[in-house]
Amino acid sequence: MLILGLESSCDETAAAIVEDGVRVRADVVASQHALHRPYRGVVPEIASRAHLETILPTIRAALAEARIDLDDLDAVAAGVRPGLIGSLLVGTSAAKGLAWGLDLPFIAVDHVEAHLYAGRLEAEPVGTPAFGLVVSGGHTSFFRLGACGVERRLGRSIDDAAGEAFDKAAAMIGLDHPGGPKLAALASDGDDGRFDLPRPTLDRRRFDVSFSGLKTAFRRTVLHLLGLDDPATDPRGHADRLSERDRADLAASFEAAAIDTLLAKVRLGLEGESDGPTYRSVVAGGGVVSNRRLRDGLVGLADRHGVDLRLPRAAWCVDNAAMIAGAAFPRVAAGESDPLDTAAEPLSIWGRPDATDSR
Q1: Greater confidence, 273 or 274?
Q2: Which residue among 47, 72, 229, 348 has its CA within the 20 to 30 Å range from the CA of 281?
Q3: Which domains does the chain have, with CATH numbers?
Q4: Phi and psi (nearest 5°) for 95?
């Protein structure tokens, strides 16, 4: 069974062909990073216009890479939530048009759930129940997964997502957009013990996390190094005065604090409560899962607790369409489809405060 997946939730236009939910026949991504770099962040109008220009060439490139025609497809899927609404509409509309024109099932996929599928691509089935975490620029959430997918959200970030916190910290020390990966690269040369930064919510036996206190402490540390007394000062305008050693040590200290916070919640899940489930696997997804410190920490926790660990390849940590097509497969195989009037939505069902127990 061949499924075409489309992804356009933010600043990546992506199309992929996945066979039987596992084998990735094609995976094409058109990045917009160069367009948004001058603005130090994603500009929604620029993003949606770029998607319009690249969606059809990206689909054609995926079909060519997979060496198939449109007539060979069995279904079309799109990430319909969450994301920038103008961007989402491009991929969603293209998928609906293809499904209607080819008389194929249309599958609406939640982007957050798709991240949890990314580690299953080109891999064996996952043992359940599984502990799931999505750590990306827009979402940081923890889940209990069953054989049919997400059963329950256990907790989430109550303010910034981890990836967003990484990007903001990177900007404070003068790193260009996208800052998170650049901060992580810089951290590899730094001393993560030089600056004592807080690990918010580390002592709570619950799965909600917060990064606002960490960001505030990091900002104050940067200002102190710069010799600036006014806490309202924007450090970005003075970051070029930081030495390379200071910048690397700041990056390493921030990364250590943020990753320790995430790993503590995974450890809490694997240790379990008296009435909690015994997990067989850990499944992770999202752009921050490409972070080497997080990956190494997850490997250590999985080994210590004797559970299977599923980490996506680096290309499937960031926004991509292979995870969209893969996540759609169980529903297509069950004979399901979504109506063509399904709306694109800016929020994930798992990003809502009341989503803990319901879909």
Answers
A1: 273
A2: 348
A3: 2-118+319-333 (3.30.420.40), 128-312 (3.30.420.40)
A4: -65, -45
Distance of CA 55 to the CA centre of its chain: 21
Note whether 5 and 316 are within 8 A (CB): no
CB 134 within 8 A of CB 115: yes
Which residue type sits at 58?
T
Strand partners, 310: 283
Distance CA 253, CA 129 (A): 34
CA 245, 238, 31: angle at the middle one, nearest 5? 80
Residues in Cβ contact with 272 at an 8 Å cutoff, skipping those fewer than 6 apart: 278, 279
In angstroms, the CA 63 to CA 319 distance is 19
Asked if pLDDT for residue 183 goes beyond 80, the answer is: yes
pLDDT > 60? residue 329: yes
Is pLDDT of 255 > 90?
A: yes
Distance CA 63, CA 81 (A): 24
The phi-psi region of residue 342 (left if phi > 0; otherwise alpha if psi is between -120 and 50; otherwise beta) is beta
Residue 353 above 80 pLDDT?
Answer: no
Q: Which two tokens stand for residue 237?
A: 């305008």
| Alpha-carbon distance values, 146 to 74, 128, 282, 331 (Å) | 26, 5, 12, 15
Over residues 11-40, the pLDDT tens digits come to 999 999 999 999 999 999 998 888 888 888
C-alpha to C-alpha distance for 163 and 261, rounded to whole angstroms: 13
This prediction's pTM: 0.91
Cβ atoms of 247 and 186 closer than 8 Å: yes
Say which amino acid occupies 179. Answer: G
A 10 A CB-CB count for 196 gives 9
Rounded to whole angstroms, how far apart are CA atoms 162 and 115? Answer: 15
